[in-house]
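Sharing a chain and its predicted structure for anyone who wants a worked example. Both blocks are below, sequence first, tokens second.
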Amino acid sequence: MITTTDKYVNLFTDFGFKKIFGEEPNKDLLIAFLNELLVGKEKIKDLTYLKNERLPRNQADRKAVFDLFCENAEGEKFIVEVQRVKQEFFKDRSLYYSSFAIQEQARKGKEWKYELKSVYTIGILDFIFEEGNTEKLLHRVKLVDIETQAVFYHKLSYIYLEIPKFDKSLEELENDYERWLFAFKSLHQLRDKPEVLQVGIFKRLMELAEIARFNKKEQSAYQESLKDYWDLKSAIDTAFAEGKEEGILEGEQIGLEKAKIEMVINGLKQGIPVELISKMTTLSLEEIELLKKTSL
């Protein structure tokens, strides 16, 4: 198990993210964060946490497990996910997940007229998915008419934050939006409480994120989560490096497939849970178990 000397949690770890944003007493932090992203929308005043696992209608189909799933007082749905590694079908996964929040709004009976509440899918990314654009890190996506560029449907929104692109220092932070970006990228690297993060909701964030305040059980859970985070990062970095080389020699698709297989094998060798590997590679549990039997 990794033993960290960090003072504050890494918000990209599963434990760190859910501890700060996924607990009922702390939902004011999630509300404050979301309100910074929802430009042009009335501020969220309250949220209700919903069950984060959604089962498909057909048992043979794949289920969805969200990091956080919430709704506001108006019944609008919010799927909030941290994505630690780049996936081949990342955008497809976002669409698939949002479909659960849409379908579950169906009402039985003839009186329902298909009126839907808004669905927001928010992805906080620890990778870059638009390599060619070095400046834009916030992406707001809706369905649009490709000829007029007018929004075709306002109730379905995808918001992505490419955190690695944020490069401002503490001294350069100008507003709460930038403070949130800095927190996701660098909170765990801080050794003190900078004045710029001792304002408003961020003073509470710093208190909740201090590892020394956790009880022994929480500290142990965080250390295990941190180990999973670094193991997965290491396995995927290695796999994609090998896959890229293979892709140059034999074609891009071969490289991608090799990278995914190597990612699974490396993850299994390092003891990363099968469920976590499945989430990061989009392979099913059955496919991973087959690779485990045939490759290890």
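Comments welcome. Residues 225 and 239 are 21 Å apart (CA to CA).
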